[in-house]
Structure formats: structure tokens, C-alpha cells
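Section 3.1: Structural characterization of target chains.
Under the original work plan, the team committed to producing a structural model for every single-chain target entering the pipeline before any wet-lab resources were allocated. The record below documents one such target. The sequence was received from the expression subgroup and is listed exactly as submitted; it comprises 120 residues.
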Amino acid sequence: MLEATLESPPGWLGARARFAASLCAHRLSSFHGDTQLVRKIVTATAAAVLAIAATAAYADDLARHPNIAAADSYAQNAIARMHEAQRANNYDMHGHAARAISLLEEARGEMRAAAADASH
């Protein structure tokens, strides 16, 4: 009788261990399918952190150079007005408004570079 009692727990523990192992394997395989999702989340988070840091550095450079900051503000307003013009004309401006927006964005990039160079 005592032998039967001693044999039962190892069999029960063995079944439990097999169940736990299969459960872990299932969880790992289902997590493995989400690896790309995890990578995308990590990449997006890193990009957001870098964008915030770059924006803070850019704002600091502009704060030191009020004339460049004013020019940047005018360029931002011009871009917004060009978007409004595109909507008002049903985007039928033969690509000229889009080109103007592209050039204004390029100019803003040059303003950022000028502010950064002048700060260092």
C-alpha cells in the first residue's frame, strides 16, 4: 500500500511536468509569432525618442537665434497656407503647390542647419 502511494506522486509530477513543458512550448511558439510586432514596437519607440530629442535640440538652437526662428515660423505658415490653397483649388495646381511645399520644407532644413552651425 505504501508503495502505491510512493509511485503515484512521481507519475502525477511527471504528467504535470510534461503539461508545463508543453504549455511553455506553446507560449514560446505563440510569442515567436509576435516577434515582428515586438520589433516594430521597439523601433517605433526608439524613433519617437530620437525625434523628441532632435526636436528639443532644434528648439534650443532656434531659441538662441530669434531671426532664424522667425524665418522658420514664416516658412511653417507658408506651408500651411499652401496646403489650404491646394484644398481650395481641388489640388489642381499642376504640381506647383506641391513643389513650393517641398522647397519650403527644404528651406526649413537649411534653417535648422544654419541654427545648429551658428550655435556651435
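The helical segments are 2-33, 35-64, 66-88, 96-119.
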